[in-house]
Amino acid sequence: MNVRVNGEPHVLQDGATVAEVVHALVQSAERGVAVALDGDVVPRSEWAATALVDGQHVEVLRAVQGG
Amino acid sequence: MLELGGREWRSRLLMGTGGFRSLDELETALVASEAEIVTVALRRVDPTRSARSPLDVIDELGLFVLPNTAGCYTAREAVRTAQLARDAFETDWIKLEVIGDDRTLHPDPVELLVAAEQLVADGFVVLPYTSDDPILARRLEAVGCAAVMPLGSPIGAGRGIDNPHHIGLIAEQATVPVVLDAGIGTASDAAQAMELGCDAVLVASAIARADEPATMATAIRLAVEAGHAARRAGRIPRRLHAHASTSSLGLAELGDEADARGVDVEHA
After folding, report:
1. To the nearest whole percent, how much of chain B has pLDDT over 90?
2. Are A63 and B54 in contact (CB under 8 A)?
3. Which of B40, B87, B97 is nearest residue A41 as measured by Cβ atoms?
4. Average pLDDT over residues B143-151
């Protein structure tokens, strides 16, 4: 399955979840991390149960300095 | 006490975290500022960067995180960013920025108002970064924003308050707190904002890019307190001519021309 994670192409196993993508990028994601799937928020409580589909765009965001 | 978003705050200085050369400098400046509300932005995870984030600094100091929507150009992007921030930081508070132009970083007033209305309806405590336009400020308040945050001058410009008349008008009419956001260059600008009637000031670049950020944080904290006290005290009117502070009543006649001087004690 081909998806884009933060704009980069990734090949993942079928059935891969949002939680797996997040944990591959961030060691500690208890707080300060958010995920959008094709532009829509995936609440933290649904990361583990949300399986990715071929062609989807995942954005994994975290706090940075700003404002 | 500053009442903002249904809570009381001791500090009238809000701090942004953008522009600091290191998280250590950010931390010492935050401590010196005594700010309680601190902004952060959301960006893509960069696995090559340090694991410590500004959020860790804010959490360690026990401060209140205020996520922003910096970098958004449309209401749609800003609303989605706010929803992501709510999930990331477990807060309904959002500093709403919808930028209209990357040279001036001026807000896009139309998109800003649309986004503000949607976010208020979605239960957010919306703190919009806005132009120094009194009518737009009133409209933002009317759709339910918890504050209005007019710019003094463009983000990072450090020019202070370009249009003090507009900032004064916004402060005079608002029934929600007015937070001057953007443009502060040094302590006296913050004092002026408070003297004009603002309830608080949000500062990032002036502290982050100072030679000594923590020292500037202290200076601006004191300026905010001074300006707030001066506003409460009530400044004297500006006059064209002098207004003697020492009475000439009982002034001794000591010179030869004393009589010829024609001193009028009523008007001196």
Report:
1. 87
2. yes
3. B87
4. 98
The answer to whether A64 contacts B68, with C-beta atoms less than 8 Å apart, is: no
Q: What one-letter code names the amino acid at B192?
A: Q
Q: What mean pLDDT comes out for the span B137-149? A: 98
DSSP E strands: which ranges in B92-184? 93-96, 125-130, 149-150, 179-181
- How many Å lie between the alpha carbon of B189 and the closest alpha carbon of chain A? 18
Band the pLDDT of B267: cuts 50, 70, 90: low
Indicate the DSSP class of residue A17. B
Beta-carbon separation of A26 and B88 below 8 A: no
| pLDDT for residue B262 is more than 60 | no
> For this structure, is B95 an active site residue?
yes
**B90 contacts in A (CB within 8 Å)?**
31
Structure tokens at B190: 């913050």
Q: Among residues 1-30 of chain A, which lie with CB inside 8 Å of chain B? A: 6-7, 25-28
Residue with tokens 């990028």: A25
Collapsing DSSP to helix, strand or coil, B153 comes out as coil
Q: What's the distance, CA B170 to chain centroid? A: 13
* Token duo for residue B232: 């409460």
Contacts of A67 (CB under 8 A, 6+ apart): B16, B17, B18, B39, B40, B41, B66, B68, B70, B95, B97, B202, B204
- Distance from the Cα of B91 to chain A's closest Cα (Å) equals 11
pTM of the entire structure?
0.90
Instruction: Give the residue from chain A lying closest to B205, CA to CA.
Output: A67
Shortest CB distance from B43 goes to which of A31, A44, A64? A64
DSSP B1-53: -EEETTEEES-SEEEE-TT-S-HHHHHHHHHHHT-SEEEEEEEE--TTS-S--
Of the partner residues A6, A27, A65, the one whose CB lies closest to the CB of residue B40? A65
